[in-house]
Amino acid sequence: MLRILTAIVMCSVLVWGYSDLDMDGVEDSVDQCPNTSLLELVDIKGCTIKNLGSPHHSDVILGASYSQINPTTQEKTDTYAASLQADYYYKAFSLQLSTAYFDSESSITSTKGTTDTFLGAYYQFTPFSTLNVRLGGGLLLPTYDADNNLLDYTASASLSYLLNNFNFFGSYSYTIINDETVNYIDINNNPVSISYANTSGYNVGVGYYLTAKLYTSVAYNSSDSIYEKIITGTAVDTVESLNTASAYLFYTLTEHWFTTASYAYGLSGSASDHYVNVRLGYYF
């Protein structure tokens, strides 16, 4: 009986004397990496050998926006849109699919329907610990209902540099527009011809991480108009570049939910005077 009691006491001492707060199988007194997660395989020192978490991730983002320009005709009209975006991530690679449904109203016209659908692929790499580079390419699928709407191609490159809590970023994109020239007679019985051109665009800005969950940024954005020229009768018009100043906010709600908000102010006559967008996303 004495031997049984002694064994019970010794086991209790051993249990209470053992501590492994991160539950990696290495006692805290010799654990050199004491805060590893449950998804990490560790060595005898308690440090990560391999992350057992899945490299596959996705998100789905719903959005609503208001602008003062028609996305297809570039007329200055009130436009409301609902958007859907889905992303898939695997290590340094990602895929993106996005589309939107818009309703544009003015005193003389009413346009609604699906915008072109974007399908893109990206690769991100880090040449330095504080520098990220992202290269991408994609297709603009002609889901907007128009006889002259054809498949377009786009390519982009972006980089961001992190300095303390500041993030300096910039990007450049080029789009090959294949849409056919449009010819029609307007309400004043004038012949109208609209031709399209390839476009390029860029943006530069700076962001700041206010907290671990809250990020904000400001940027300058410029993009060519898709319209090469518009001929009405004998008058020939060219459309200036779309230039805006914008502000952006990203907030992490929970481990899976996040939200964004953005505002842009038009700096050129061809751009929307005001643009507001809010989005809600789920990451898994």
What does this structure look like?
The chain folds into 2 domains: 2-51, no CATH class; 56-283, monomeric porin ompg (Porin). A 12-stranded antiparallel beta barrel has the order 3-4-5-7-8-9-10-13-14-17-18-19. The protein has one helix at residues 2-17; strands spanning 40-42, 48-51, 56-67, 78-90, 93-105, 110-114, 117-128, 131-141, 152-163, 166-176, 182-185, 191-196, 199-209, 214-223, 227-232, 235-237, 242-252, 257-266, 274-283. It has 284 residues and is mainly β. A hairpin with a 4-residue loop joins strand 13 (199-209) and strand 14.
TL;DR?
It contains one helix and 19 strands. It is 6% helix and 59% strand.
CATH architecture descriptor name of the largest domain: Beta Barrel
Quote the CATH topology of the largest domain.
Porin
Instruction: Give the oligomer, counting copies of the same chain as homo and different chains as hetero.
Output: single chain
Question: How many domains, as an integer?
Answer: 2
The CATH homologous superfamily of the largest domain corresponds to: monomeric porin ompg
Strand arrangement within the widest β-sheet reads 3-4-5-7-8-9-10-13-14-17-18-19
Terminus-to-terminus distance: 56 Å
Q: What's the total number of strands?
A: 19
CATH class (first level) name of the largest domain: Mainly Beta
User: What is the alpha-carbon Rg in Å?
Assistant: 27 Å
What percent of residues adopt helix (DSSP H or I)? under 10%
